[in-house]
Amino acid sequence: MTREQTVTVWQDKVRMRVLSEGAGPALVFFHGPWGLTWDPFLTELAQAFTVHAPEHPGTTPGAPDDIYHLDGLWDLVLCYDELLTALKIDAAVLVGHSFGGMVACEMAAAYPRRTRKLVLLDPIGFWRDSERVVNWMTVNPAELPAWVFRDPSSEAAKRMLGILDAASPPEAAAAARVRLMWAMGATGKFTWPIPDKGLKKRIHRVSAPTLLVWGKEDRLVPPVYADEFARRIPGARVQTVEGAGHAPHVEQPERVARMVREFLA
C-alpha cells in the first residue's frame, strides 16, 4: 500500500508530498519535469526497497507558490538534503529520471556519503551544441507525447502526461493540462534556458556505483549523452533500452526495473 505524507522544509516555507511504498533499504526516486506519477516501475522496485518518491517543490497539490522561495539549483539540492534528514534517511539509493536524474546526480555530488548507489534514467545536465537537448517547454503541447515516448498513444504515456480520454469532463481535462504546465514551469526554473548548470564542474565528486539507463529512441536527450555521463563518472555502467524513448522506465517498467534490481543487487 502506498503511504503519503507532506514534509515541510526550508524554514517551513516549502512543502513536499512524499509517496512511499515497500520495505527494505531506502530508495529515493526523483521524478521528471512532468510531475510525479506512481507507476508500475516504482511498484516493482518496492518489492525489494522502501521507495520514497517526493514531489519537486511547486508541484505538490495545494503548494504551487512554494517554488518562489527557491532561487536556484543549489537551493533545491539543499531542500532535498533537509527532506532526507526529515525522513530520517542517512543514506539511500538515488534514482532519477530526466530532470530528476540531474537532481539525483547533483545530490550524489554534493553528498557522496548519502548516496549508496546512483541510477540515472535519461538524465539531463550537460549540453553539446552539436547534439542539443530539446527544450520540452517550447514544444507544442499536442506534440509533447511524441517527443517523450516512442509510442505516444500508449496508456503509459497518457498516465505520465495526465492525458485524459475524450469522454472525460472538460474541467478535469483542463485541470490536468494546468497541472502539467505548472510542473514544467516549476522544474524549468532550474533548467531554463538550457540544462547545463555547472554539473560538469561537480560530477567528479560522485563516488557511488552508477548505472545509466537510456531509451535508444530518446528524441529529447540524445543517447550520446550517456557516453558523456559515463566518461565523467568512473566505473559507470550504461544500458540501452530498445523500443523506448525518453521515459524507458514508463514504457518498459518490468524490463527497466529488472535492470535496476540486478545492478543494485
Q: Strand-and-helix sequence, N→C?
A: EEEHEHEHEHHHHEHEHH
Percent of residues in beta strands: 15-25%
The major sheet is characterized as: 8 strands, mixed
CATH topology: Rossmann fold
Structural class: alpha/beta
What is Rg? 17 Å
Tally of distinct domains: 1
Could you estimate the helical fraction of the residues in percent?
A: 25-40%
User: Mind telling me the CATH superfamily name?
Assistant: Alpha/Beta hydrolase fold, catalytic domain
The average pLDDT value, as a whole number, equals 96
Description:
The chain is α/β, with parallel strands linked by helices and 265 residues long. An 8-stranded mixed sheet has the order 1-2-4-3-5-6-7-8, sandwiched between helices. The chain is globular, with a radius of gyration of 17 Å. The protein has a single domain (3-264), classed as Rossmann fold. Helix 2 packs across helix 3. It has 10 helices and 8 strands.
Fold topology:
Blueprint: E1 3-9, E2 14-21, E3 26-30, H1 40-45, E4 50-54, H2 73-86, E5 92-97, H3 99-110, E6 115-121, H4 144-148, H5 155-161, H6 170-188, H7 199-202, E7 210-215, H8 224-232, E8 237-241, H9 248-251, H10 253-264
Helix pairs in contact: 2-3
